[in-house]
Amino acid sequence: MEREFFAEIDSSDSAEHRKLIKENDLVILARDLIKNYEIGDFLVKAVDNVSLEIKRGEFIVIKGHSGAGKTTLLNLIGGLDLPEQGIIYYDGVLITSMKEESLATFRLMNSGFIFQNYNLISTLTAEENIMFPMSLAGVSLKDQREHAVSLLSKMGLENRREHLPFQLSAGEQQRVAIARALANRPPNILADEPTANLDKKTSIFIQALFKELKEKGITMIIATHDDGLIELADRVILFENGKILNNT
User: In this structure, are residues 130 and 179 in contact, taking their beta carbons and an 8 Å threshold?
Assistant: First the structure.
């Protein structure tokens, strides 16, 4: 996607923010993010006045107990959700000011998302699930199929092409989901507990794959408790009660 497509968004950017992004080669610049949820009579501060910077090519782990707000923070910086307050620049683009249609296109070309519950389309085969984001990006059917087969082979799933999600194990579904995230060759990967509830063999496979992606310079932002993934991290962000506790 050409940057000119988003020129109208960039025109209102702060000169200070643009300078900071350029000087530090930042993929993510987030300032003063707030996201609350109402549960009955209670107000849950999922993200409570959070500011964050992530450099291009960094492997970032967001760590915290269940319910700490990690998923909400990941969804905000990835553009899957919008904050009630605060701003987010993603690769120099002020995504918090984008309309949903443009934001969806931006996500499609710039991010690969991996979800804890896989989020595969139940009526599509493994191959078709991987082809789906490529079809949205305008890739030819021939190239979609060739790349999907290549990714399935890389994931060790070449014999599962025609299987529907319910016919796959949890580990196989997650590998299909990872292949789908890689389908449009995104420069950034965001993953929410990608090895949770998986067998040890699949977890080790994913750890090795993520190490390979890191070595290729892909920016990795992962919410996880997996020690193998934490060992790969350039920084571990401890996140509790909607706040960053440290940033090492």
Answer: yes
